[in-house]
Amino acid sequence: xxxxxxxxxxxxxxxxxxxxxxxxxxxxxxxxxxxxxxxxxxxxxxxxxxxxxxxxxxxxxxxxxxxxxxxxxxxxxxxxxxxxxxxxxxxxxxxxxxxxxxxxxxxxxxxxxxxxxxxxxxxxxxxxxxxxxxxxxxxxxxxxxxxxxxxxxxxxxxxxxxxxxxxxxxxxxxxxxxxxxxxxxxxxxxxxxxxxxxxxxxxxxxxxxxxxxxxxxxxxxxxxxxxxxxxxxxxxxxxxxxxxxxxxxxxxxxxxxxxxxxxxxxxxxxxxxxxxxxxxxxxxxxxxxxxxxxxxxxxxxxxxxxxxxxxxxxxxxxxxxxxxxxxxxxxxxxxxxxxxxxxxxxxxxxxxxxxxxxxxxxxxxxxxxxxxxxxxxxxxxxxxxxxxxxxxxxxxxxxxxxxxxxxxxxxxxxxxxxxxxxxxxxxxxxxxxxxxxxxxxxxxxxxxxxxx
Length: 452
What we know:
- The protein is of the alpha+beta class.
- It has helices at residues 9-23, 110-120, 123-130, 133-144, 170-185, 192-206, 214-221, 275-293, 308-314, 320-344, 348-364, 371-382, 409-423, 425-428, 433-436, and strands at 31-39, 52-68, 73-78, 84-88, 153-159, 227-231, 237-240, 257-266, 386-391, 398-405, 437-440, 442-443, 447-449.
- Strand 6 (227-231) and strand 7 form a beta hairpin.
- Helix 5 crosses helix 6, helix 6 packs antiparallel against helix 7 (214-221) and helix 8 (275-293) packs across helix 10 (320-344).
- It starts with 8 loop residues before the first helix and ends with a strand.
- InterPro entries: GHMP_kinase_C_dom (IPR013750), GHMP_kinase_C_sf (IPR036554), GHMP_kinase_N_dom (IPR006204), Mevalonate/galactokinase (IPR006206), Ribosomal_Su5_D2-typ_SF (IPR020568), Ribsml_uS5_D2-typ_fold_subgr (IPR014721).
- One of its GO terms (molecular function) is metal ion binding.
- Residues 345-421 form the GHMP kinase C-terminal domain.
- It holds the Pfam family GHMP_kinases_N.
């Protein structure tokens, strides 16, 4: 199978033309942020505890075409949602208050959307009303850390078809896209590690989601063909490439693996569900118990602050639910470290077995997932050429990922479509055929493509 290019020139030019018309500017003035989605082969659910994780960006994601607005106003349109979001950013007197962000105008369809929320509890309609909140969050993050922004942006944001709320960190990709656009418009130089912190502020402080820094790190630090490793406690990171012997040609452009994204048809925003934050609290409670019994009650209660020997000595003191959460953390941390060696040696079969074990622990110890996702996971494990599979993202909705032998990728995709549709025909009916099972490759991290 040939290399899949993203974004294509056609995609870029289409967005540039829309923004140029919208802003009454030349196409040559339009810049585009490329902010990829990410997968996490190993390191599930442990970044918020300071654990070790692995990840890579993929060749699909978010495109944000924009021009500096020439004023403090932000004007945004979306290819996925209706309406237009407008708000003005204020230059702050930080001696008085930390940040002010004016409320955006509601999208033109907001009245109908709100009625549907009241009547049907529709998450998708609620997201349609609030899709501009990540732009406000990006402004909040930058201004709350002392950045003075005189320029807003006018832009159009678009995501790869069918992959919103898919568990590929589309929310982090959106937040990073807005950060890079605002920084570019205001000529602010920001390092990737600083933007990891800024996106954490969007998610943790502005939106109230208690996640770690895995998503941002993968999106900002990844390099095509490499596995990104990060210690979420120390912030140490490195890129690991398989050996040259595992490549299919002398130029190293092809790898003998592809990435399968299999969509479940389930969509739910993490900020609308308490399951994610509750499990983070349970991990912290397990850490608190272990630190207390080991004579360190004053230490911050995250599992990365618990030595493995302390866990082994005192895990019997944890109640069963907390014991499962701790077992997932310590076993997953170990799988990540083993996985680094497997990847560096080009042993994708061994790496795949670790991915599958991660999926099992997510079900049994972290207790995320649901019937359709677990069914999809099991189907992937039976597909031809699949090295290993697990849930993507938090595991409460979205898709499953698999590492697959490149020569069997198309066959595996067809198998998964066919077998999953037998199990969940109603959910499959909600997925576009193009997005049901996608064959992807690793990609580069987020960047801004300057005007032509």
